[in-house]
Amino acid sequence: MTRKLNAVAENGSEKAPPGKGLVGSQTLLRGLDVLEAVASGATNLAMLSEVLGLATTLVERRYLSFVPRVGYALGPKLLELGYQARGQMSLPRVAREHLEALASGTGDTVHLGILDGTRALYLDKIPGRRRVEISSRIGERQPLRSTGLGKALILEENEARWRELYEAENRDGQRYDVSLNAWLKRMREYSKLGYAFDLEENEDRIRCVAAPVRDATGKIVGAISVSSAAQYMGDDRMQTLVDEVRQTATLISRDLGWSEPQGASVRPPLRAVKP
Q: Which CATH architecture has domain 86-255?
């Protein structure tokens, strides 16, 4: 952090090149450096104030707050902007371009959905190029336990919650040929791997690969899936699609503000779970 602060101060001491545009952009970048330094834990920016003349302005505009003998902290204006940004970054809008690229690259149908009570709510659907009819519709609610997308939405729930969700669909009269014990075993594997399959569980002869989408807090806020007929979705191809689906989910998550934890590594996929 000290190196970063020193670097900001040194940049501030350099003579700005001629041209209002350059001067303005440099001032903006230095101001952002100050905000990032405070966000990283710096509180004493007296040196920066003298060199850049920005801290006072940032306090006046409420991007920073200042308490004597305590120092600087991020200000309420950033909370306001963050709230507005969150409202503007709707999941379907952020995800759409990535979903289109995934559908184009795979040739298969791509879905986007969120958790809605004890069901998965489908927010978007991009049909594939194959002669395969996937009966899902935007706005409908699908089961959690039998859809790949639904299982991806609940990967981080505990086992007690998984049992509740499984039994909830029993009470709703949903027919399902996978026993609770077999389903829990699959969910444990999916949870470790970070993705989920639908092995013709929700719709006859339809399979899919799904992965969760996260927001800036790391929480699962949605999921995506690639679906196709079983003839195009053998075990080997499903394993091949895992990386593509997870990568697309990662790109959407990053656009929502998520960043991968340092030192995290992609775990090698297990072989497909058999029905």
A: 2-Layer Sandwich (3.30)
